[in-house]
Amino acid sequence: MSRPTKVQPVILCGGSGTRLWPLSRAGFPKQFLCLTGADSLFQQAAKRLMGLGTDHIQVADPLVVTGEDHRFLAAEQLREVGILPSAALLEPVARNTAPALTLAALAALENGDDPVLVVTPADQTVANASAFNGAMHEAIRQAAEGAIVILGVTPDRPETGYGYIQAVVSPTSTLVVERFVEKPNESTARQYLAEGGYYWNAGMFVLKASVWLQAIESFRPDIAATTRAAWAQRSSDAAFVRPGAAEFAAIPSDSVDYAVMERCPGSRFPIRMAPLDAGWSDLGAWDAVWSVLPKDPQGNAHVGDVLSTDCRNTLVHTTSRLVALVGVQNLVVVETPDAVLVADRSRSQDVKHIVSQLQATKREEHTLHRKVHRPWGWYDSIDEGGRFKVKRIQVKPGASLSLQKHHHRAEHWVVVSGTAEITCGDKKLLLTENQSTYIPLGEVHRLANPGTIPLEIIEVQSGSYLGEDDIVRFEDTYGRTNA
User: Fold this and answer.
1) Nearest of 347, 366, 345 to residue 357 by alpha carbon
2) Is 339 inside any structural domain?
């Protein structure tokens, strides 16, 4: 009996999803959003890959490549769906997908195996799991024999937002990639559909770890060498693996497509394609989100607290309040506690221009939501004025904030639910529901939850400066000390 093929899932969990603002932000990008169900896109990707196992395919725990800033989000979301990563590879700076995949390949080869890497972005959705598994199983079979295989999505419309793959049937009846083509205009996209043999590039790849390293060393030896140097200087903290920061910063930035895949046709690395017809979408803009959501008979897709009358083909997504529409068509309305987007649905791609304006003016709405997730829980800034700010804070059971002090503000804490263990100077005290305490300006303090249920408090800050950077950390469970 033959040994099962070892498969190492690799989830590329970078990107900022600027066209899905205001729901997607730099600090909470689209892969962590629940757009098409109860699970986030990242959780959906992890569950899809873990579901590939059969009697002949042995699937390892996933490798996740993400940024330092998103490490706790990724770890927490995997924990919520009962998946433990084999490692989370943390990029100190963004260097695109080719270095990310090279890191994953080096990690996959660490224990002496040479598994088949199944590589997928974290921010896509697939409607038909059975069809996805079938396409992936075929790709894994070919990759186990040494092939590079890309997933090509069977197009159902003349889409101008995706790159295309042209594939032809080989004498062995496999599909061989003849060329990659950039995003076409509409007339060219219609021509591709009429001719046949063209597929959308889904950014999913299946190949052995050793084959990727051979290919990147052949086509981009500079990326291969600098990524190896960064990997050699790695450090580990539980499941978190950090490549050398200075060495990683020296890696040239390039995508898997440009660095390797588009150079493969006609080379010693022929590339094959497995067709995917499984209701795939990369949810690249709000119009794509509208297309995959359930709709009423008038074509409206509404999520949250929405009322409408005499509306057609609208998308409304609310998170904190009622949104009402009357007599409008083809609109996108996205409401969050601190920002509202109203756009023509056909102009969804142009939301990125709003994000560019936010970046240029250094507005916080580009980076953070009003509700900010932290490794210990979250806080929501519910009100503020000239010399005060009010926050709602939740701390997970067993978690604690850093031992810290502030130079410019004092804090008042009121426990709403749960039990708070509070360090204030040389004193420690336990507070329960409806009890409160005061943290003077400059006092060293810490908030912790020793209980088994979430702790929730209301914090009132007062002082001359209330920015998040007024903090000196002395001890921190999460490696963030600066004193």
Assistant:
1) 366
2) yes
Same domain, 103 and 179: yes
Cα distances (angstroms) measured from residue 410 to each of 420, 443, 465? 18, 8, 10
Reading the block at residue 461, the tokens are 């800050």
Q: Is residue 384 part of a domain?
A: yes
> Between 71-80 and 41-50, two packed helices, what is the crossing angle to 10 degrees?
60
- Omega before 440 within 30 of 0, i.e. cis: no
Ordered DSSP codes for 145-202: TT-EEEEEEPPSS--SSS-EEEEEE-TTS-EEEEEEEPPP-HHHHHHHHHH--EEEEE
Give a yes or no: residue 60 inside a domain.
yes
Same domain, 117 and 245: yes
Q: What angle do CA 376, 377, 379 make, to 5 degrees?
A: 125
Q: Please, are residues 124 and 282 in contact by the beta-carbon 8 Å criterion?
A: yes
Partner residues linked to 164 by β-bridges: 181, 200
> In 3D, which of 136, 112, 108 has the Cα closest to residue 50?
136
* 310 and 217 belong to one structural domain: no
Residues 329 and 268 in one domain: no
- The closest of 78, 132, 376 to 276, measured between CA atoms, is 132
Q: Both tokens of residue 62? A: 């996933």
Whole-structure pTM value: 0.89
Write the pLDDT tens digit of every residue in 194-232. 999 999 999 999 999 999 999 999 999 999 999 999 999
Given the DSSP bridges, would you call strands 240-242 and 87-91 parallel, antiparallel or unpaired?
Answer: parallel
User: What is the residue whose two structure tokens read 């390039």?
Assistant: 254
Tell me the per-residue pLDDT of 311-346, one tens digit each, with 9 for 90 and over: 999 999 999 999 999 999 999 999 999 999 999 999
Beta bridge partners of 427: 424
Range of the domain at 448: 371-475
Rounded distance between C-alpha atoms, residue 21 and residue 16, angstroms: 9
Beta bridge partners of 167: 177
